[in-house]
Design goal:
5-stranded antiparallel β-sheet, two-stranded antiparallel ribbon, 3 helices, binds nickel (II) ion, alpha+beta
Length: about 170
């Protein structure tokens, strides 16, 4: 496994729509393992492939609490098949938008179809933090960030902050 660099706002690649994975082969499994290592190292609870610059429809997550056994999940070509009408709010953050957190409301429960690390078709019902995390990561596959779900005023403010930081970094 190799730790990869995580791309940061305002990197334009974060706005790409990722392509479906054609075949779950050794290369895809290697990518999944690299994504898991990068996520654990960060540390974070979810990571989409585009966050390491790879525009493929896959994500990894682990919502096990501190002190619990790790519970890694590799999700390839996810498709949300239903959403609950009830919403729940969580304070979200993103490894590509470091040190910024804001409450986001999303469907509390979802049904999800996807391929796992072995390429097997799976269907799960997710709720709570797992449902939120899955929806946050699936948004990444469509070029959507959690700051797109907050007020325009707050989004403009955070965009400006990161644009300024990027300019500063360029100048060195
Ligand atoms: Ni994110």
């Amino acid at each position: 496994m190799t730790k990869r660099d995580i791309i940061i706002l305002p990197d334009p690649r974060l706005r790409l729509v990722s392509e479906p994975v054609a075949t779950v082969d050794a290369e895809v499994r290697q990518l999944a393992d690299d994504m898991l290592e990068t996520m654990y190292e960060a540390p974070g609870i979810g990571l989409a492939a585009i966050q390491i610059g790879v525009p493929k429809r896959m994500l990894v997550l682990d919502v096990a609490r501190e002190g619990e056994e790790p519970d890694p999940l590799v999700v390839i070509n996810p498709k949300v098949v239903w959403e609950s009408p009830e919403l729940s709010a969580y304070q979200e953050g993103c490894l590509s938008i470091p040190d910024y957190y804001e409450d986001v409301e999303r469907p509390q429960r979802i049904g999800l179809r996807f391929l796992d690390r072995e390429g097997a078709a799976r269907e799960i019902e997710a709720d709570g933090l797992l449902a939120t995390c899955l929806q946050h990561e699936i948004d990444h596959l469509n070029g959507v960030l959690f700051i797109d779900h907050i007020s325009r005023l707050k989004r403009d403010r955070v965009m400006k902050k990161f644009q300024k930081q990027a300019r500063f970094a360029e100048k060195g």
